[in-house]
User: What shape does this take?
Amino acid sequence: MLPRQLESILCERLTRVPAVALLGSRQVGKTTLARSLRIEKPVHYLDLERPSDIAKLSDPELYLGGFAGQLVILDEIQRLPGLFPVLRSLIDERRRAGERSAHFLLLGSASPDLLQQSAETLAGRISYLELSPLTVTELEATAETMNRHWLRGGYPDAYLAGSDAASREWCDDFITSYVERYLPLLGVASSPLLLRRLCTMLAHQQGCMLNVSRLSASLGIDGKTTRHYIALLEGLYLLRSIPAYSTNAGKRLIKSPKTYWRDSGLLHTLAGIQDLDSLLGHPLCGQSWEGYCLEQIITHLPRTTAFSHYRTQAGAELDLVIEDAGGKITAVEIKRSLSPAVSRGYTESCATLGAAHGYYVIPQGEAYPLNRGTTAISLPEFLSKLDPAS
Assistant: This one.
């Protein structure tokens, strides 16, 4: 098992919060991490996709009530949302008895928005953490490792596969499992073929302004349905929409979000990219590198930090605007070049937003100043400047 940076945060959270939800897409390593935790209390594990474990919960209050003083791990909690009221009752009972550490660790493949009942029922009793695919900071920061990580993505089985072909095969099977099995479980009635087409079309629009009307027309479905499917893919931690900067900056701003596949390995599989050479010559190369860097950066931002993209109707733009809790703005441009040139649009955007500092994120090399307020910096070095996600 590769060490995960979230492990220490998760262990600390389990010492002071009655219930902790560890969320993230399927196959990202949640179960492996949860079952390898070194904590003081005994651990009892239930897989809610296993019929025998579900049968044990025919009377959940009676069954779970027998594990006082233990940490109960409930895997794939979204399969039994009716458990949340029982968990609330058991948590309150144990709180009154003076037990303060976590009673339940909930593993789920859906966001809190899709697990809305947990947010309502367990309000004040639950803390959420997101486990992302492997980040570049969890790996050895060499040029070879970064290229492999960029090409294959961060899902452990894809990254550690014996070959690029085996990695693509894993990613293809992963996508197939979602469109044929997992999305239908969430009530999606469309055919797997249509869902696969939607995923492929979104891959070819990586980093573009989301045009729902065009997608809907190509798929032959209405816009409301398309938006619903895209929202589901976001809630399942597969897509990320980066909102447009919305504060009045005295400019006419583009207000559409940009949409990215969060994992570059899935993106490349959907786009038919087979190896690094074909990736470097593919029309999606620039958007792929941009999305890869953005996901690494956003994953490392503190939860109190806001992020957006910025673009005016005149064409001035920034790939990422980071605004910390104190209102300080950092401008970020992403270029797959070791010698980027500062553009006029970048300079205008920084001046308009009053950016405290700006960065051009490049693949590798030592940091160096591009002008008085802008630094060219490698992705690993830029990530080291950010606080770990918490």
